[in-house]
Design a protein that fits this description.
The chain is α/β, with parallel strands linked by helices. The protein contains nine helices and 14 strands. Bound molecules: 1,4-dihydronicotinamide adenine dinucleotide and oxaloacetate ion. Oxaloacetate ion binds next to helix 7 and helix 8. One of its GO terms (molecular function) is L-malate dehydrogenase (NAD+) activity.
Amino acid sequence: MAKVTILGATGNVGMFAAHAISEIPHVSEMLLVGRPGRENFLAGCCRDLSDSFAARGNDVHLSYSTGLFDAKGSDIVICAAGVPRRPGQDRNDLAFENAKIVADAAATIGRSSPDTILFLVTNPVDVMTAVALKYSGLQPRQVFGLGTHLDSMRLKSLIAHYFRVHVSEVHTRIIGEHGNSMVPLWSATTIGGIQISNLPTFSGLPKQEMIETVRTSGEAIIRDKGATVYGPGEAIATLVRTILGNENRILTVSSYIRSEIHGIGDVCIGVPARINREGVFPVPIRIEEDEVAGFRESVEKIRNLTDEVMERLEADLKPLK
Ligand SMILES: NC(=O)C1=CN([C@@H]2O[C@H](COP(=O)(O)OP(=O)(O)OC[C@H]3O[C@@H](n4cnc5c(N)ncnc54)[C@H](O)[C@@H]3O)[C@@H](O)[C@H]2O)C=CC1
Ligand SMILES: O=C([O-])CC(=O)C(=O)O
């Protein structure tokens, strides 16, 4: 049985993720963490969730806190704390503001819960994964981000609709940045186990249009309803289930890579990884030349932004002379 802690639990994503995670059979304890001053809201969330447990008939011990040290003993700590983008903003515009929040939280979690798995949702998620890895002092296998898992699910759904097949028949991946430079892997896309390019209808597939839809999906949802909630919430729950169930599924998450993809590495970015109770293990793969080129570009973009954010964080944390 396992303890799961959610930072940013009063937010749109944190709150729905808590509900989705509470359905996972391995979860026996859940801690909702919010900022000081939000005690009443957190208490209300606990009462509301407890009612849903009663209606559903499951038994999760639920509590809340405004202190990160209470996360001690967690099997997984999910960080969804931080500012979301507003319409017209890019996820990368949030980098420095959210990096300060994540660095601070990661340092405390690393000290109080050295055996935990730290799961980043806060955007820009690839950069936040690198910040959390550095400031927590945890091992690379213990720190990962939602990465391009949600993007991959969005593409999977579009392909399933196009071919009028059940989503479970489609396997596909998007790697790279959870952002504009994401790279679809058509070479790793199958329908009913058949390589997609071997289907006679493949040439008519509106690939560019599909990828554009995925790229702009978060932005469009935020413009229409203020926040993306159900997609990320369910995607987060899938990853928690995969870890706690020791499932060894291969999902596309933001993870520290050394050189697993065509020798490219030393960065945190979305890649296929085997995921189990021990954490996240990037899978070495070979992909098509144009995919490698796209991935290289995406890596350079994220590496530059990560370096810039790390430098600013260090300057910010330097004591005044
Ligand atoms: N990686 C992904 O696929 C996705 C990432 N996100 C990201 O998750 C984050 C949360 O999104 P929402 O829940 O929609 O935002 P929200 O504004 O509804 O919630 C933000 C949460 O962070 C907390 N927070 C804000 N500033 C804080 C600070 N200085 N210290 C500690 N906690 C702080 C708030 O109290 C609240 O609990 C955003 O960065 C968003 O971009 C959201 C959806 C998907
Ligand atoms: O678009 C956003 O800002 C939220 C997010 O990352 C997503 O839903 O993909």
